[in-house]
Amino acid sequence: MANISRSPWLLHYDGSSCNGCDIEVLAALTPVYDAERLGVVNTGDPMQADIFLITGGINEQNKDVVKQIYDQMPRPKVVVAVGVCACTGGVFKDCYNILGGADTVIPVDIYVPGCAARPQAIIDGVVQAVGLFQQRLDEHNAQKRKEA
Amino acid sequence: MAEVINPQNILEEISVSDLLRRALELKKAGFRFSQAHAVYNSKDNKYELSYSFSDYSTYQLHSLRVVVDLDTVVPSITEIIPAAVFYENEMKELFGVKIEMISADLQNKLYRIEVDTPFGPKKEEA
Amino acid sequence: MGKRSVIPYGPQHPVLPEPVHIDLVVEDERVVEAIPSIGFIHRGLESLVDRRDFNQMTYVAERTCGICSFQHGMGYCEAVEHIMGVEVPDRAKFLRTLWAETSRMHSHLLWLGLLADGFGFENLFYQCWRVREKVLDIQEMTAGGRLIFSVNKVGGVLKDVTDDQLKFILATMDEVEAELKVIKETFFEDYSVKSRLVGVGVLTAEQINALGAVGPFARASGVNVDMRKLGYAAYPHIDFEPITSNDGDCYARCYVRMMEVFQSIDIIRQVIAKMPAEKDLAVAVKGNPDGEYFMRVEQPRGEAFYYVKGNGTPNLERMRIRTPTFANIPGLCEMLKNTELADIGLLILTIDPCISCTER
After folding, report:
1. Chain C nearest CA to B105, separation (Å)
2. pLDDT at residue A44 above 80?
3. Which conformational region is residue C243 in: left (phi greater than 0), alpha (psi within -120 to 50 degrees), or beta?
4. Does any CB of chain A come closer than 8 Å to the CB of residue B59?
5. Residue C16 has what pLDDT?
């Protein structure tokens, strides 16, 4: 089974975004852009997800939710911050209820810019995430073999 | 050319004690509750509360304006208009307006923010 | 009587991309009460008024919501223009109407797709979104952005649309209309769609009135209300009648939104036919806003409310946005009572919730 690669599953969570990036993430999965042809599947269950797409900044109320979703995901995992709000806080950075980008609570691997992030950019982010996931999976498996 | 229905917006300044009576009268006249919001006027150190009602058929917008001091207790209109519950909780949480008898008082837990009354009067630095 | 229990619904769940949390009090399989709690996306963007001037606030207002972004910018600009007594050039008014209607189209198509997904008709979902991309192409071509395109400014618009582009829009409208007719047939003729939507979540006109609901949600219950009749932008020059239905169930809401897409196609054709030739796009705005205004516009989801108060300085004293979903939440809670647990996702969808708007 060593040379069979896995299809990573995507999980999408909307932090405190304006909805623009969320809709673009969905649009990236629908026929015109069709990110699923790259071997990823959209799921709603954190326990079965490998790649975490997060849009929007972090606020007081959703920081625990984001942390919890991240912790529920099995290792290895990859986090993609989609849109400028998830990267830095964006236009809402100065608002009293925004703590900052997604990296204030969880480690982020790939940053996708844009307001709203375009589907092409999101797909590029997903492609990089798939590569990174495969690399981490290989390392993870090698580690496991060494321990065994 | 399409017909344009655009009546002049009405803004009626009333005192706190008249609020419930006028809200009830507007409701009886067939108006629906449209929105409510607060403004903190830093120049006079007062809250300006607006309660807007509008009519489905005439599109008339009728707003009640109540200007109160910071510590005046304002009665809740949720007894008359249940739909106002979120608006009043918002005023209370974000501005610190003292509203009593809200039908479902969320105790400043509507948005669950860390900052106290971000839109209200600025606290003096101690 | 069965045993009562509480089921937490959300914030992360498969029906909507946005987080919303509702505590459902259920008795066996029936919902007795629904208690929403919001705040997962609360940003506090209204508080930016003391750090951004009134021109910059246009871009903040547009980012209230990514779907009706253009209409938020338009509503805010119209409110400031009213305070400052600015008369916008005619071409700018018509362009605003054009973009307002394309955003209505893509918003409704998005919703129709999500609804189809909600009752498990994945093919229909993808078909709606495929057609929607054509509308987004128009926005991208004319304004440079797919969703958030920031072409509004206080005093007019920033970009013009060339005659070639107008021709392209007309051709796209024909295409979209033809494809939508097929989709419409599936929505209204297919028995499986009917069995999920007919008679579910009925609200009467009296209930709508008492709860203060707005937009297609109210129109589906026979309440004839459409803020476009107030005659902002170029709507005084456009012929249209609000679309209503009397049934007040999920099927009626689906009908109203579907027919509004066709209505928007019609309005866009009228706008292009009546587009003024003068190329003035904006007037120069001098001074700062001083005064207050209540502005209402009809967004895809219903009446949005803008209150702007200026004090003669570049920074506004207060900007308040009351979005249509905020007004529809009491209606949603009423509708959720006494329904089957399995219909909850569908019912939440039929008010077309936009949580990002609601919490700002």
Report:
1. 13
2. no
3. beta
4. no
5. 67
* Neighbors of chain C with 3 or more C-beta pairs under 8 Å: A, B
For the residues A63-79, what does the mean pLDDT come to? 87
Mean pLDDT of A70-83: 88
Q: Per the CB < 8 Å rule, is A60 touching B118?
A: no
Give tens-digit pLDDT for B38-94.
888 777 888 888 888 888 778 888 888 888 888 888 888 888 888 888 888 888 888
Q: What fold is seen in the domain C44-326?
A: Cytochrome-c3 Hydrogenase; chain B (1.10.645)
Measured CA to CA, the distance from residue C310 to residue A17 in angstroms comes to 27
- C38 interfaces chain A, CB cutoff of 8 Å: no
What number of C-beta contacts closer than 8 Å exist between A and C? Answer: 124
Top-confidence residue, C112 or B10? C112
pLDDT > 60? residue C314: yes
CB contact under 8 A, A98 and C67: no
Multiple choice CATH, B10-100, 2.60.40.180, 3.30.460.80, 3.30.565.10, 3.30.160.250: 3.30.460.80
Chain C closest CA to B71's CA: distance in Å?
A: 21
Nearest-by-Cβ selection for B86 from C229, C307, C326: C326
Q: Domain-by-domain residue ranges, chain C?
A: 44-326
Q: At what angle do helices C90-118 and C250-274 cross, to 10 degrees?
A: 150
Residue B36 CA to residue C86 CA, distance in Å, equals 27
Q: Where along chain A do its domains lie? A: 9-140
In this prediction, the answer to ipTM > 0.85 reads: no
Question: Tens digit of pLDDT for each residue in C216-235?
Answer: 888 888 888 888 888 888 88
Is the CB of B112 inside 8 Å of chain A's CB atoms? yes
Per-residue pLDDT, B61: 84
- Write the burial class of residue B58 (CB in 10 Å: 0-12 exposed, 13-18 middle, 19+ buried): exposed
Nearest one of B4, B64, B76, B68 to B35, comparing CA atoms: B64
Rounded to a whole number of angstroms, the distance from the CA of A98 to the nearest CA of chain B is 10
Rounded CA gap, B126 and C227, in Å?
49
Within 8 A of A57 by CB-CB distance, chain C residues are 43
**Residue A72 is encoded by which pair of tokens?**
């529920």
In CATH, what number does A9-140 get? 3.40.50.12280
Distance from CA of C132 to the nearest CA of A (A): 10
Q: Chain A partners of B118 at a C-beta cutoff of 8 Å?
A: 96-97
| Tokens matching residue C304 | 């949005």
Nearest chain C residue to A44 by CA: give it.
C14
Tens-place pLDDT, residues A87-117: 888 888 888 888 888 888 899 999 998 888 8
Mean pLDDT of chain C: 84
Buried b (16+ CB within 10 A) or exposed e, C274-305: ebeeeeebbeebeebbeebbbbbbbbbbbbbb
- Could you tell me which of A15, A10, A29, A17 has the C-alpha nearest to residue A119? A29
Cross-chain residue pair C42–B1, CB shorter than 8 Å: no
Q: Which residue has the higher pLDDT, B83 or C92?
A: C92
The alpha-carbon gap from B100 to the nearest alpha carbon of chain A, in Å, equals 26
Q: Nearest Cα to C325, choosing from C294, C295, C293, C349?
A: C349
Residue C242 or C47, more confident: C242
Which tops the pLDDT comparison, C17 or C110? C110
> For C96-160, where are the E strands, in sequence order?
152-153, 156-157
Tokens of C74: 């338009």
Q: Do the chains contact at B2 and C209, CB–CB below 8 Å?
A: no
